[in-house]
Amino acid sequence: MRERQPRAMSEIGVALGYPPSSATVLLKTLVGLGYLNFDRKTRVYFPTPKVTSLGDWIPSALFGSSRLLEAMRDVHAATGEAVAIGTTNDVYLQYVKILQSIHPLRFHVDEGTLRPLTQSALGWLLMSTMPDEKVDNIVRRANIATPNAAHRVKLPEMMKRIRQIRGKGYCSAENVPILGGATICVLLPTTIQNQPVALGLGGAAERIRQNASRYLSVLQQAARSVKANDASADTGL
């Protein structure tokens, strides 16, 4: 994934930390299974299209027949901001799907990124769905998982924030997790692998601030569209 170009067996072995004998067996096996192509002239390996099929089942397993991805695209089309679907993964927020911003001034977050739940607006929103005792446990464990002591949070402050989010039904924040950035997010009326799901957008703080009311409305409409679609599916409409 880092190189994205043909590589010799010796280079692959070094990158994986495998001895030559193990690397040879692994690569020959992958060639035999059709996942790698071996160019005998240049003696390099490269993935075949069969590799892309390995994850074909994941989107349907995660998102099912719900309108999650369409809702993301609706928000992206209406705002041009980075749009993300996030869910909980132990004490972390995981960005399971991201559409990157089209604005000249933007912040980039890779799909699949993990971040302690205490370190982002999406994480705070997801914690707002949990009982207080679970929030207590999450905060304590997330602090342990946060290397920079300055980024660790105090439980009373986090509980106050969580209660405010529960009252509003959405979350917004500036300079978290990225200095100069801002996020607005809402909960979606669905789950992924039995975990709560948040839909959020983010970008330059000044731009988000200027469009906050419209952006929130767009997110809320997208959340309603997911609920309406799921309800139709349940009734067979």
Strand order of the largest sheet: 6-5-4-9-8-7
Count of DSSP helices? 9
Main sheet summary: 6 strands, antiparallel
Mean pLDDT: 90
Proper CATH architecture of the largest domain: 2-Layer Sandwich
Q: CATH homologous superfamily of the largest domain - what is it?
A: GAF domain
**How much of the residues is beta strand, in percent?**
15-25%
CATH class category of the largest domain: Alpha Beta
Shape: globular
- Give the tally of β-strands: 9
Helical amount:
40-55%
How many structural domains in the coordinates?
2
CATH topology of the largest domain: Beta-Lactamase
Spans of at least 5 consecutive residues with low confidence: 231-237
Radius of gyration: 21 Å
Structural class: alpha+beta
How many angstroms does the end-to-end distance come to?
Answer: 43 Å
| Element-level helix/strand string | EHHEEHHEEEHHHEEEHH
Domain IclR-ED: 50-237
GO molecular function: DNA binding; DNA-binding transcription factor activity
Protein name: Transcriptional regulator
InterPro entries: GAF-like_dom_sf, HTH_MetabolicPath_Reg, Tscrpt_reg_IclR_C, WH-like_DNA-bd_sf, WH_DNA-bd_sf
